[in-house]
Amino acid sequence: MAYRTSNNTSFAYLSVKDRWPVIVTGAIDDMHRALYKCEFDEQRIEGKTILEGLANLKYEIEHNRDLIPLDEDGKPDISDYNRELAELADVQWFSAPWLFAECYMYRRIHTLFSTSILWKDYDVFSRQKLATFRSSRPAVLELAAKYKAIIEQLQKGEVIQNEAAREEAEQILFTEMCEICLWGNATDLSLLTNMTYDDIQKLQGADARKNAEKNILVNDLPAAYKVLNEARKKDFKADRRVDIVLDNAGFELYVDLILAGYLLAAGLATQIVLHPKSIPWFVSDVIPQDFVALLDVLNDPQQFYAPVEDKDANGNAEPLTETEVSNLVFLFQHWAMCQTEGQLLIRPNLFWTSYMSYWEIPQQKYLYDDLKESELVIFKGDLNYRKLTVDAEWPPTTPFKTAIHAIGPTSNLRILALRTCKADVVVGLPEGEDERLKTMEGGGGDSGARKWAWSGKWAVVQFYDGKL
Predict the structure, then answer these.
(1) Which helix (H) or strand (E) holds 272?
(2) 289 with 296: CB under 8 angstroms?
(3) What is the pLDDT of residues 157-210, one digit of tens each?
């Protein structure tokens, strides 16, 4: 059975009670700021109507009102939402299936804008996404320098000649890149301090690696690397594609592109397809405009960072050094080149903002046929994991292949989930692990709640080969 907001021992209940009203309030605050800068009366009038709609939504959530049908905005998914809402029949905010209600909330927010004339393309969450990327400045700069060093080594052919040693170093580097994508801004970038392939080998078995992996409860990265490496060995000149179903914008998108660029430069893939959302979603999820905005920042980083970051005692901003600017522009040039040459593609699909679970992917013929062309489909983040597993109350020892069902055995898809746990559902754990984690401080204890899975402190990296 799927998690419902009525379950007061689940994160679903805390979401509807505490998180969602705060999120809608953030959207209201953003609209007030946007209206203050409006120059045209027509836009201001429409903006006030959107504000009223947001206020009504917040009131309905807080007072446990019925979920109402979505207004038509010309997109085909509206009828899907309203049909599902009719089947649920008179459902309220505090008794709804969690996944449906959360998706419905964001789709309803977007409908307020998509049914307008002058606010259709406005991203009410954009300001927050840019702010979090700004706050990541130190990590952005550090990783840019290290990425540039790796790519330049690969471009010059400065890698270990012994095949076994090279593959060992490459697997370590692949693992580090994926773990940065897994943890996002929480990652320990010191793991990538030694950037030559020779030095990377020294990381094997090091304390830093063991420390980084201690909170990954299941780690199938070796299997994922093996698939990509074997495909390369089988036919180096063949097209070999990796897909990434994206999660958050800002720093997380930045490190996703770091991984994408590395896979291309190392020859582990010949093409990367990125799958963003089509509309503003779950506050921080990537939409195509975020990719453009990120490249714009990297092309002119001084303009983005210097005015607001690293102010000294006199309130003056610390400008980026020439080297820091050069490193960031290198990323821009490399990724822009990959995009121009067709190695890096952006491919949104309305399905990613559906309320449907990913068990429905085989019913989406165009999307399913497309994904089957990929050597590996990487699903990033907590929401994608919830959709992979239908957000159901599985026993935590349920095999991953069972929980992903229709996109597991015989699906002809290879799935890799990179997920830090921020919701109740979790599968594939060893016997007794859930119980052990519950006994830890803040883990939930005897309350019946799986609180350890709410904080993002723990992660799972799970792989299934549906092409076998």
Answers:
(1) strand 271-275
(2) no
(3) 777 778 888 888 899 889 989 998 998 755 444 444 444 545 544 444 446 556
Output phi, psi for 463, to 5 deg.
-125, 140
E strand intervals along 229-270:
241-245
- Asked whether the beta carbons of 344 and 274 are under 8 A apart, the reply is yes
R_g over Cα of the chain: 23
Is residue 130 within 8 A of residue 192, CB to CB? The reply is no
Q: What's the pTM value of the predicted model, to 2 decimals?
A: 0.94
**Farthest-apart Cα atoms in the chain, separation:** 69
Please choose, from the candidates 396, 388, 428, the residue with its C-alpha nearest in 3D space to the C-alpha of residue 247: 388
Distance of CA 230 to the CA centre of its chain: 27
DSSP line for 42-109: HHHHHHHHHHHHHHHHHHHHHTTPBPPPPPP-S-THHHHHHHHHHHH-S-BTTSSBHHHHHHHHHHHH
Q: Tell me if 232 sits within 8 A of 240, measured CB to CB.
A: yes
Tens of pLDDT along 375-384? 999 999 999 9
Nearest to 49 by CA among 61, 31, 70: 31
Nearest Cα to Cα of residue 92 among 2, 4, 8: 4
Q: What angle do CA 338, 340, 341 make, to 5 degrees?
A: 65
